[in-house]
Design brief:
The chain is α+β, with helices and mostly antiparallel strands. Helices cover about 25% and strands about 35% of the residues. A hairpin with a 2-residue loop joins strand 2 and strand 3. The protein is globular, with a radius of gyration of 16 Å.
Length: about 180
Amino acid sequence: MQIREMGIHEVGKLKEIDRSEHISKVYRMGSLGIQAEEANHECGSWSPLMLQELQDRFVDELQHGGIAYGAYAGEDLAGFAVLAHRWLGKREDGLQVDLMYVSRSYRRQGVGKRLMHELKLEAKRRGAKFLYISSTETESAVNFYRHCGGGLTEEVDERLYAKEPEDIHMVIDLQNTEPV
């Protein structure tokens, strides 16, 4: 598995990602933090509209100074992650993990961990003190980010919350953690 920076010209490779998964639990924010709820359903792969939105977001971030990393198994894209360009937080010292997907057949093989490592290194190079994550509410996504050092944020980014209110908003402190 090779991890390398992706360019805008590789946007068409995103269709290779199989985002499908069985979702047994989801998390919801409550007054006492997050609570698990049974879900038991299948999440399919990309619809044409979803894929177009994903590709547009990828291109927009890269055009504005964000960076993407891809995990390649030969010529196949096994996963990718995007570090957003926009600074977040009261001190504008955080960056967002904007997109992160690993194809179903490559999960639980360390691909996501390696992509997260690259995002952490790049965020630190840019001077970020934390990574902000607006995680899908699925058990697998939340647990992945927890494993990478994420915890619930005390300072929700209002723009991202308005865009994705069902997401679990998390941060990874880059000052007190080593890259995964």
